[in-house]
Amino acid sequence: MNTQLRHIVQNMPKAELHIHIEGSLEPELIFALAERNGVKLAYPSVDALRAAYAFKDLQSFLDIYYAGASVLLKEQDFYDMTAAYLARAKADHVRHAEIFFDPQTHTSRGVPMADVVNGIHRACADSGISASLILCFLRHLSEEDALATLDAALPFRGKFIGVGLDSSEVGHPPEKFARVFEKARGLGLHLVAHAGEEGPPAYIQSALDVLKVERIDHGVRILEDQALTKRVAEQQIALTVCPLSNIKLRVFDTMHDHNLLKLLDAGLAATVNSDDPAYFGGYMNDNFVAAFEALPLGLQHAYQLARNSFAASFLDAPAKQQFLDEVDAYFTAFNVV
Ligand code: ADE
Ligand code: ZN
Q: Is it true that domain 3-332 has CATH number 3.20.20.140?
């Protein structure tokens, strides 16, 4: 990647659509919050914790990710975590973020739903960038638990725009959550789900057909099913792809093996995102640079990815158009539009 392309990609306006806020918790903040809250950690130091970030698959990551989140107890902890993420996103020219949070990880430890939602939401409101929240259900837990979680979140209905589905994928297919997604749909919430990260393309299909999701999180295994690829490309259902995550969790061996370019070439509305940036080696621009360094991606792809990120967002039409115009104006200078 030449230095001009790097500069263009780093500075272009972009939206982030796949970020777990608990996955933005840096080891330094984990230790600071542990001390503030009197929580005992299993690791003696920041360096020892960071050294444990060698994952062999999704589950080996999730075990450490949930342990890290155990330091979050007070509303201010959720605020501080979110404010730190938004500052980093802003530095990477992220203009809009749709942020996942996992309430069950906290309510199961006795943290009130109010403190989780209000802390994260207040940081978004104070940040000066456009940001909205998506409540994710943990798919390794039961649908009853997800339904109870949705009910507990309803007093805060104005503070989140949608629901998602995350955690251990294989063995927990989307159809396990048909009723809770139907209920969320009835409430006018947007719907997304992780599918086709470690799980098969059939999970992408049932996320679309049973849950009726509007975007697929990850979805990189879609290319194993030609008919599904054609359909998702035709319908322009976006995939929120997370390149560094896919390497750290061994979905692909190296970034050279990543299928981001193949997804774009298949006409799919792929976007680039950070997933759990504190655990996977970087934020938005780190993901863009890593993918552009390893793959034969050029200026036209940068333009496409910037456009895709806003087009796939849940912004209202005028706001979306304003950001798309901003992308066009930025790229006009490089004779791309
Ligand atoms: N929770 C946080 N990151 C995740 C990922 N990459 N897949 C599934 N659940 C997650
Ligand atoms: Zn994710």
A: yes
